[in-house]
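name: query_chain
kind: protein
chains: 1
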Amino acid sequence: MKSVYTKFAIIIVVIAVFVIMAVPPKEKIKLGLDLKGGIHLVLKVQTDDAVRAVTDQAILQLRSDFKEKNIKVEKIKRIGVKEISIEGYDSMAEDQILAILKEGGFQNWNYNVSAGKIILTLKPNAEVKIRDQAVEQAKETIRNRVDQFGVAEPVIQREGLTGQSERILVELPGVEDPARVKNLIKSTAVLELKIVVDGPYASKEKLLEKYNGKVPDDMEVVPGISKDGSREYYLVKKVAAVTGMDLRDARVGQDKYGAPAVSFRLKREGAKKFEKVTREHKGERLAIILDGIVQSAPVINDVIYDSGIIEGHFTYESANDLALKLRSGSLPASIRYLEERTIGPSLGADSIKKGLKAMLIGLLLVVFFMIFYYKLSGVNAVIALLLNIVIIMGALAYFRATLTLPGIAGIILTIGMSVDANVLIFERIREDLRLGKTPKAAVDEGFKKAFITIFDANITTVIAAVFLFQFGTGPIKGFAITLIIGILASMFTAVYVSRAIFDLIFALKKRVETLSI
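structure:
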């Protein structure tokens, strides 16, 4: 009798804990996008941009190393996104150049010498790593932006296998201004500070007249917007002196006219580079480029150390959004929308209503069948089933899992699977009763013989659900989570709770002649 009371004490404590975790359900259990409404986006990270940026940084490093070693090279240019060509050097300097490539931090590059030219190619494993890191960084940057924007319980995850997929799934429940959030997510917010070589001019053709219509290899043409709103063009150094990677902080401020602007501060290394560049190019113009557009190009009147200001035609809201994007970090590459869906909350309310209705109907049918077929023993299974649902809700609240429509389907499936375990046990008990065993012996044998079958069936389902969770997207994950929790809960309720109820019956009655099963 003592052991029975211990079992029930454990059951009461477990159920009480899950009830406390689940109450109040409206506050504790999160609703997914399909139930609450919001936007669903699938983004593709253009990882070529990240590879190109690494190549450009390598070119900057080469120029610096060659200058330090007093090696004269006519041309260092990028070919495609992952190749560098070094041309026009003295043959006597070739060994020095190769020594720099071998010892100067270019281990991720293959290189070969041909006809007075050295071609560097990014190694395949290094390229894969850069692309993978670009997607991971983009995912975290998007998460930081969304968190600062104030979207509650977003789903931001990578689709497919790490190192292969360039897609990111973003689900934002309850978003009231989808257009602003989309702009916040998509904007690359790549900040670059580049020395202006020439410009501005009203047209690209006018700008390139003195260069025979061609852009020099180490330069590029960048568009800007003049004060009157017309387009203008600048010729700037291709490699940035300072980038958004060097930023420490960005806040909304004011320009000299009192209009909204964005002030920024640089990290230690960035400040050193900024000081060096402004010292060497005093009197020249510095283009402040954001996402490939010149925001302003002030003259460097003095050495600048660790701070600056971005001026433009900003409203307070747009300046605040820009500061937010710069603080959260620039995207390592541009992104493209592959899929976009906006789900209204009315659809979510209708989904909740229909989902709960389906769950209730399924529950009532199962309860009716168990009581009709197994009589009072069916009540045992019904109690276990109800406790199973309580445990699922408490677990969803504790793990802060998101309840989706497929998640409700998972709960409905669990209702059937949880009584399936009871059916296996009850049928085993029936067989033993037909063989003439006493009710207690039949119950003992029924639970003992059915356990292996129940465990085998449930563990294989859990394994499948784990893979669904690992590789599935938001709705699939919701289904997998509720299925895993439901199966583990059913193991506890069908085997432990049901057995405890039978043990209580045997303990309360001195002699049990029959079972209503």
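note: The chain has three domains: 2-37+344-508, 49-125, 187-340.
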